[in-house]
Specification:
Helix content: 40-55%
Structural class: alpha/beta
CATH superfamily of the largest domain: Vaccinia Virus protein VP39
Oligomer: single chain
Radius of gyration: 23 Å
CATH class of the largest domain: Alpha Beta
Distance between the termini: 63 Å
Shape: globular
Length: about 450
Amino acid sequence: MRQNSPRNQKYDPDRHAALQVLKEVNQDKRFANISLKEILRNRSLTGRDAAFVTQLVYGTLEKQITIDYLLGKLADLRRVNPWIANILRMGAYQILYMDRVPDSAACNEAVKLCIAHGLFALKGLVNGILRNLARCKEELKIPDPSLPFAENLSVKYSYPLWLVEKWIKDFGKETAEDILKPIGANNITTIRVHSSNTKDRLKELLRPHGMEVQDGFHLSEALCLSNIGDIESNIYYQKGFFTVQGESSILVSHIVDPKPGETVLDACSSPGGKAIHMAELMNGQGRVAAWDIHPHRVDLIERNRKRMGAEIVQPLVMDAAIENAEWMNKFDRILIDAPCSGLGIIHKKPDIKLRLTPNDLKGLPEIQAKILSACSLYLKPGGVLVYSTCTINPEENHDIVAGFLRNHPDFLLEDPLSFMPDTLHTAVQNRMVQIIPSRHRIDGFFIARLRRTS
C-alpha cells in the first residue's frame, strides 16, 4: 500500500476509499462497480493501491453475510451507526480473510477511521469488538453445527437464507451447494481479444503494464487478467485491441453462430459486447441491429462499437417487449440476452445478493416472456433465435423456454453441443445450457438455441 503523505498521517487513504464505497453500497444503495470506479479515478488510485481497495471492497461484500453473523456473536449491531457498521465489516474481513494484514493493523486502522469520521466515542467499541474477533476467530469461523442445513450453507458461503432455501428447493442440496461455492480467485477480469489481434501479441503488450495474463479456461478468444486497475484507462483497451467480456458471454455469440452477410438482431444489447463479437464472427459483412430501451445505454453501445471498429453494428433505441410490425420476418438470427436477476455473476458483483429480495424476482419472468414472444415474430422462417440470461433461476430460464415452445409450435429446440468446446459439454442438459460457476470456473449463464421451422 501507498504510504500516507506527511500532511495526513491520521488514517490510511486506501482503507478510507474502500470504506466510502462500502457505505455507498450498503446505505446509499449504489452499485459497487460504479462507486468503486468513481473513487479510484477521483483519488487517482492505480497499481497496488487500486488492487488493495478493490480487494477490500469486493472481499468485504462477498463475505458480508458471514461477517455480520460472526460480529453478531460479539455485539448487538442492529442499530449501530452506518459508518461504524462498515468499519467493523472491513476490519473483520482483514482479520478473517487477509493473511498478509496483521490483526493489530486491521484493528488500529479501524480506530483511525472512526476518528476520521468524528466518531471518537465509538472507537473503543470498534477496537474491543475487532480485537475480540481476532482472539477467537478460529472458533468463530466454523458455523454452529446445530444450525439447520440451509442456515449453515447461508453462513458458510455468505448468501441470504431465502436464496439458499430457494436453490435447495429448485435443485436439491448437492447442486444448491455447488451453486453457492466460490469460483476461486474473484479478482480476475476476463477479456475477449479482437479478431485482428492474436492472444500472444496482446499478452506481450499487457504484461509490461503490471498485469498478470493467462489464457481463458474454455474459449480461444479469452484471456484472464489480474492486477488490472482501471482497465478503461489502458491504451490497448482504448485502441480496441480487446474488450471486457466473460467466457460465458463469448459462448453465447458462438451458439448464435452468425454468418457473413446475414441480418442479425441483438435485442437487449447494452453494453454491446455480444453484438460487436457477432460482427467480428461475420467478418464485418452484413448488419447487426443492437437495441436497448434506454438512450444512455444505446450511447454506450455506440461508444464501444466505435472503439472496437464494428462498423456493421447499428445501435437503436427500441423496446424489445413491444411488438412492432416494421420488423416482422426481417432477421436471419436473433439474440435475446434478457434482463434478469444476475445471480450467475454474483462472484463478480457480490452486492447483487445483498440487494436482491424475493419480490425483485417476481416480475422478471413476465418481462422475459414478453421480449421472447415479441422478438420471435421478427425471425425469418428457418432462422435461429438464442435466448440467454446470466442467472440460474429456473423461472427465468428453463420455464421461459418451455412456456414459449408450448405456445409457438413453429419453433424447435436445437442441440447446442456442436457450437461449444468439449470442456463445457457437461453444462448441457435437455438441449439447454446451464453453466454453474464453481463447476465450470466462469459466469453462471443459461443458453437455449431455437429454430423457427415455418
